[in-house]
Design goal:
This protein is of the alpha+beta class and about 200 residues long. It contains five helices and nine strands; from the N terminus they run βαββααβαβββββα. The protein has one domain: START domain (Alpha-D-Glucose-1,6-Bisphosphate, Chain A, domain 4, 2-Layer Sandwich), CATH 3.30.530.20. The relative contact order is 0.29.
């Protein structure tokens, strides 16, 4: 994913700015509202307001597949259009996730009346099959940094996928609308991932 490896919301934000997540910060865990959505088999996504229009994104979904399988789908450029419906292209520019533990990918997403097409270049650092940290390495976005975590469920038969990012969008729309767009789009990407996993042969 744009790590999904970014699979994330910054793909749909023109000029998004992601603020750094402190290396020593306590990782987010699903609260009561998130647990209710997970119990229904649905994705949970929230975006809380920060300073200067920033949005802190937390999202999670449970998937009935092992972490390694989910990991492979998340990082396969050939599946990007199934995960991010606005994606046009995805390619690896440098590195090798399997050999080097990192890569640099480029994704291009389609724009609309309010958001232009976006070319995003990002570096992903991998800890198979548990953690993907990503950050801007070029392209149209100003700054980008975040992570995806994969937690084993049911003795390895399932996976909890957690996404965290702190983003400030530099676009000509009210901040509450931008945050709501981030919330919806993040949940949609996670739901798409779950659907793709369910369609794979067992």
């Amino acid at each position: 994913m744009q790590p999904l490896a970014t699979f994330a919301v910054a793909l749909v934000l023109a000029g998004a700015t992601a603020l750094p997540i402190s290396p020593g910060a306590v990782s987010w865990a699903p609260g009561v509202a998130a647990q209710r959505m997970l119990a229904k088999g649905q994705a949970f996504s929230e975006v809380t307001a920060g300073t200067d229009g920033a949005g802190l994104i937390h999202a999670v979904i449970d998937i009935d597949a092992p972490p390694r399988t989910v990991w492979m789908v998340m990082n396969d450029c050939r599946l990007i259009k199934k995960l991010i419906t606005s994606a046009e292209t995805c390619r690896v520019l440098q590195g090798d996730a399997a050999q080097n533990g990192w890569d640099i990918k480029e994704t291009v997403t389609k724009g609309n009346l309010f958001i232009p097409s976006i070319r995003n270049v990002y570096r992903s650092d991998y800890q198979p099959y548990t953690l993907i940290r990503f950050r801007k390495a070029g392209g149209d976005l100003k700054v980008e940094q975040g992570e995806w975590r994969l937690e084993s469920l049911n003795n390895g038969a399932g996976t909890r996928v957690i996404y965290e990012n702190l983003v400030a969008a530099d676009i000509n729309l009210p901040a509450p609308l931008v945050r709501e767009g981030m919330r919806r789009d993040t949940a949609k990407v996670l739901a798409n991932l779950k659907s793709v996993m369910a369609s794979l042969p067992r």
